[in-house]
From TrEMBL:
<dbReference type="InterPro" id="IPR003964">
    <property type="entry name" value="Carb_kinase"/>
</dbReference>
<protein>
    <recommendedName>
        <fullName>Carbamate kinase</fullName>
    </recommendedName>
</protein>
<comment type="similarity">
    <text>Belongs to the carbamate kinase family.</text>
</comment>
<dbReference type="GO" id="GO:0005829">
    <property type="term" value="C:cytosol"/>
</dbReference>
<comment type="pathway">
    <text>Metabolic intermediate metabolism; carbamoyl phosphate degradation; CO(2) and NH(3) from carbamoyl phosphate: step 1/1.</text>
</comment>
<dbReference type="GO" id="GO:0008804">
    <property type="term" value="F:carbamate kinase activity"/>
</dbReference>
<keyword id="KW-0056">Arginine metabolism</keyword>
<keyword id="KW-0808">Transferase</keyword>
<keyword id="KW-0418">Kinase</keyword>
<dbReference type="Pfam" id="PF00696">
    <property type="entry name" value="AA_kinase"/>
</dbReference>
<dbReference type="InterPro" id="IPR001048">
    <property type="entry name" value="Asp/Glu/Uridylate_kinase"/>
</dbReference>
<feature type="domain" description="Aspartate/glutamate/uridylate kinase">
    <location>
        <begin position="3"/>
        <end position="292"/>
    </location>
</feature>
<dbReference type="InterPro" id="IPR036393">
    <property type="entry name" value="AceGlu_kinase-like_sf"/>
</dbReference>
<dbReference type="GO" id="GO:0019546">
    <property type="term" value="P:L-arginine deiminase pathway"/>
</dbReference>
Length: 311
């Protein structure tokens, strides 16, 4: 059966540097093309933590150095990361398609995601980004640039930015049109470039939208049947890493909700995935969310592994 599937790729699908990424995406393309070959419509979303961190750090370092390059705002760093990750992904998917005699067009859409300027996340920034600074430098940045600086695990001070929830996807009509016309689309990279609306303008804000939530949002907008979150583990566990660890296969929203309340899922890693999966499964009858590993994606779709969350 033909399904519309949003695939969200995690850090392990892309690696930590351009060289590693170029190699890893060849593998990442395989399960994606398996899905396309089986006749599904596939939309791809991905994280950008290490990549945007690297770009931001390089830009900050160069602007502080003798090179004295212009300062690069954080939303622009996010846009750069979408472009460079998309470039690697679209080429790898194209190549894998061609090797199977398919010439489905593949493209990346630089995607902005609307956030609410009154989101309470803006009051308590949580995501550390960029370079490490001394306490003195950190204080200077706070007064001069209005950055929020926080001590990061004994390693020095870093800028922290908020993680607001996605409200809407600005380029949704473009993504829809491409998908409806048989294109494979890479979108909401890194959770999307966070923007707020000011009159007719969209203004980029220094923030990080969780890619799991942004993937869920675009899946709802596109009326997808499946949200598949591919990460480093084959299944979601309760008592994760403990002696009584138990891997979960198929659950209802009520069942997993109970485990969320009991605190089984780590905030910042598994919790946002579980929350995104629950939100998607809840949003409309028939929608399913699957959390599994990149390697097991195909088997997961066949219902043989992974953690499936249904209404
Ligand atoms: P991604 O880059 O795919 O978003 P994350 O590192 O953010 O990956 O999240 C996936 C990780 O979450 C897993 O590799 C695992 O170490 C961790 N994790 C935390 N709690 C759980 C849990 N209850 N079950 C499975 N994995 C968990
Ligand atoms: Mg993550």
């Amino acid at each position: 059966m033909k399904n519309k599937i949003v695939v969200a790729l995690g850090g392990n699908a892309l690696g930590k540097n351009p060289k590693e990424q170029l190699e890893l995406v060849k593998n990442t393309a395989k399960p994606i093309v398996d899905l396309i070959e089986a006749g599904n419509e596939v939309i791809i979303a991905h994280g950008n933590g290490p990549q945007v961190g690297m770009i931001n750090l390089a830009m900050e370092t160069a602007s502080k150095s003798e090179a004295n390059t212009p300062e690069m705002p954080f939303p622009e760093c996010g846009a750069m990361s979408q472009g460079y990750i998309g470039y690697h992904l679209q080429n790898a998917i194209r190549e894998e398609l061609l090797s199977r005699n398919m010439n489905t067009p593949v493209a990346t859409v630089v995607t902005q995601v609307m956030v609410d300027k009154n989101d309470s996340a803006f009051e308590t920034p949580t995501k550390p980004i960029g370079a490490f600074y001394t306490e003195e430098e950190a204080k200077k940045l706070e007064t001069e640039k209005g950055y929020k600086m926080k001590e990061d695990a004994g390693r020095g001070y870093r800028r922290v930015v908020p993680s607001p929830i996605p409200v809407d996807v600005v380029e949704k009509e473009t993504v829809k049109t491409l998908v409806d016309n048989g294109h494979v689309v890479i979108t909401v990279g890194g959770g999307g470039i966070p923007v707020i609306k000011e009159g007719n303008s969209l203004v980029g804000v220094p923030a990080v939208i969780d890619k799991d939530f942004a993937s869920e949002k675009i899946a709802e907008i596109l009326d997808a049947d499946y949200l598949i979150i591919l990460t480093a583990v084959e299944k979601v566990a309760i008592n994760f890493g403990k002696e009584n660890e138990k891997w979960l296969s198929k659950l209802t929203i009520e069942e997993i909700e109970k485990y969320v309340e009991e605190g089984h899922f780590a905030p910042g890693s598994m919790l946002p995935k579980v929350q995104a999966a629950m939100k998607f499964a809840k949003s409309k009858a028939g929608r399913k969310a699957l959390i599994t590993s990149l390697e097991k994606a195909a088997q997961g779709i066949e219902g043989k592994t992974g953690t499936l969350i249904v209404k």
